[in-house]
Amino acid sequence: xxxxxxxxxxxxxxxxxxxxxxxxxxxxxxxxxxxxxxxxxxxxxxxxxxxxxxxxxxxxxxxxxxxxxxxxxxxxxxxxxxxxxxxxxxxxxxxxxxxxxxxxxxxxxxxxxxxxxxxxxxxxxxxxxxxxxxxxxxxxxxxxxxxxxxxxxxxxxxxxxxxxxxxxxxxxxxxxxxxxxxxxxxxxxxxxxxxxxxxxxxxxxxxxxxx
Length: 211
Known about the structure:
The chain has helices at residues 16-39, 46-53, 57-63, 68-71, 75-87, 95-108, 120-128, 131-154, 160-183, 188-208. It is an all-alpha fold and 211 residues long. The relative contact order is 0.11. Helix 1 packs across helix 2 (46-53).
């Protein structure tokens, strides 16, 4: 779920070595994404990706333990973001409020993890056409849910696993609906407004459950 633009400048506190590694990872993922879109996920090998990116196959696997993660490369970021929102919430803020804030920050920034992106028309059909990518996407949802449950347990929630499952299910439902409508050809600008409203309604419903 990478934003397929160039890697850009460094991050605050990032060393030169860390920046080089991040840029290499981004380049490999970008190259793989183009190849998967053009030929299909199953028709492209890791060796071909490595050759096109100018690295060895071993280097590819150093950054992406599984071929599927070359395309679904936002999984680690998603796991960290949802758990981190709870762990890093401001004093007096509830876990659910922190997660709502994260959701709207993603949406307003047009971040790929926000569920709306202008490049999704070229992204999700590749996933839909690949059993391996669909399976990895389901695993990613479970990984986010487990990480979020751990953070909610640390926050003192009585039923952290249930709360995490409800939050992830609500978030996913809103995003899946929006992606489906975008792929069906609905205008992006109007969809973003509706997506934001439905995400807010989803968190309102979760709040009524007293999570």
